[in-house]
Amino acid sequence: MNSSSAAEKGIPVLDEGVLSTLNADGTRRWLRPRLSKGRFLKWRRIVGYCLIVIFVALPHLRINGKPPILLDLPNRQFTFFGATFLPTDTLLLALLFLSFFIGIFLITALFGRIWCGWGCPQTVYMELVYRPIERLFDGRSYRDGGRTPVHPMRRAGKYAVFFVVSLVLAHTFLAYFVSSETLARWMTRSPLEHPTAFIIVAVVTTLMMLDFCLFREQVCTLMCPYGRFQSVLLDRQSLIVSYDEKRGEPRGKRRRGEEAGDCVDCRLCVLTCPTGIDIRGGLQMECINCTQCIDACDSVMDRLNRPRGLIRYSSQEAIEGGRRQLIRPRVVLYPLLLMVVVSLFGLALAGRSPVDVSFLRNRGSVFHVLDSGSVENKVHLKLTNRAPRDRSYNVSVIQEGVAMTCSDLPLRIGPGDSASLVLHVTVPRDRFEGGRAEVKFLVGDDTGYEREFSHQVLGPLFGGDASSTPTSPQEADQ
Ligand code: SF4
Ligand code: SF4
């Protein structure tokens, strides 16, 4: 519906400008940004396609037999370039995320929204994958703003290719959670054998189709919180894509005797903008710093034999005639904070035990009183090898009179892997107090690492009355 027909139907139409993606009557304005070739597009393509290759390749690479990034949620393990993090590593994970956020603050303070234009998957996939496919299938219709109808077969072909791309990306996304081998196995079997994974792929594919077919630039302008934060993350010295108003205005054609700026008001910078804004209006929240307007304007300036850079990377301060200051409080503070957090992370990582040990009581019968009078407990021990290489583990008890047997020792465990053992621990009856006795275990590996761990086993209460002894772990804990 255009503005005049909307007005005829009594729908209020605004005289003032509205959001770049809305028509004056409030309906969606579909953007078909023109492609502007230039030096920035060339570099963005190199960076963007490299990022896509990295995203697709990472699950297939191996470091010490494990993918570089594996978010193994069922086993509650997070592998990051050879290091394995467990739920007990809360501090390490908190420091890792904190350093990531401080890093983003620092990069934004220095280079503005460089992430949005060059690294964000939303921009990379929309502008370098889905948009070129759309340009190819829509052809003339894309170029004339949708006035030429698209043949239904071409339209169907476009959405079929979108679907295949989304499906591949959704499977790649899942490979970060289950490893590529598991994914390959699942893909050759019935979805009924792995319904959860199937549902995840279906949901991610649907969300991608909705995003790249329907929401598009609205994800950046309305949904993404990072865009909203830019007013606090940026300052007048941050690098942004800006229009040189002093040089460009008054805009329009130069007539003899009249003074005019370098902007010829060709509107190419607006037509090429994927969020539909006019950068000549100053810094705007919708600008994702994609640099397409720079390439568009540079090509115009080249044709007019005028210097490039009417739209360029600059800071608000510099573009208004001031001097760009690189050193300023936030640019000093963020690296200092980052150094502190990264150092704490390094210290915590270096001081971390190379093996994670957890004890569990046996389910069902807790202990067993032997004919000798000693009490036998079955103790379940879970070992997780955090080291980057295979390790062989041994476990022993270090108290006189306490005995332990286990047929699975020594136990070899791969890097980042876990294994469970059942230990049969026999403790003399007189060591129990209130139905409990403390047992000290020594866990060691083939590199000479040794550490002592304590675990409480259960036994009869005073007097050895079987009826007054705990019969389950829950009862024992009361
Ligand atoms: S592309 Fe350059 S010359 Fe054309 S309207 Fe934009 S700023 Fe002005
Ligand atoms: S104003 Fe320029 S840099 Fe900003 S989103 Fe539009 S085309 Fe990209």
Characterization of the model:
- This protein has 17 helices and 14 strands.
- The N and C termini lie far apart (71 Å).
- Strands 6, 7, 8, 10 and 12 form a five-stranded antiparallel β-sheet that branches. A four-stranded antiparallel β-sheet has the order 11-9-13-14, with no helix packed on it.
- Helix content is 41%, strand content 17%.
- The chain is elongated and about 115 Å long.
- Among the domains are: 25-231, no CATH class; 355-477, Immunoglobulins (Immunoglobulin-like, Sandwich).
- The chain has helices at 3-8, 39-57, 90-111, 114-119, 121-138, 140-143, 152-178, 180-187, 195-215, 217-223, 225-233, 245-248, 268-271, 292-303, 316-319, 329-350, 473-477; strands spanning 69-72, 77-80, 83-85, 240-243, 311-314, 355-361, 367-369, 375-385, 391-397, 403-405, 411-413, 418-427, 436-445, 450-458.
- It is an alpha+beta fold.
- It binds iron/sulfur cluster (2 copies).
- One iron/sulfur cluster binds next to helix 13 and helix 14.
The number of distinct β-strands equals 14
Low-confidence stretches: 463-469, 471-478
Number of helical elements: 17
State the separation between the terminal residues, measured CA to CA.
71 Å
User: Beta-strand level of the residues, as a percent range?
Assistant: 15-25%
Task: Compile the SSE list and pairings.
Elements: H1 3-8, H2 39-57, E1 69-72, E2 77-80, E3 83-85, H3 90-111, H4 114-119, H5 121-138, H6 140-143, H7 152-178, H8 180-187, H9 195-215, H10 217-223, H11 225-233, E4 240-243, H12 245-248, H13 268-271, H14 292-303, E5 311-314, H15 316-319, H16 329-350, E6 355-361, E7 367-369, E8 375-385, E9 391-397, E10 403-405, E11 411-413, E12 418-427, E13 436-445, E14 450-458, H17 473-477
Antiparallel strand pairs: 1-2, 2-3, 4-5, 6-8, 7-8, 8-12, 9-11, 9-13, 10-12, 13-14
The chain binds iron/sulfur cluster (SF4) (2 copies).
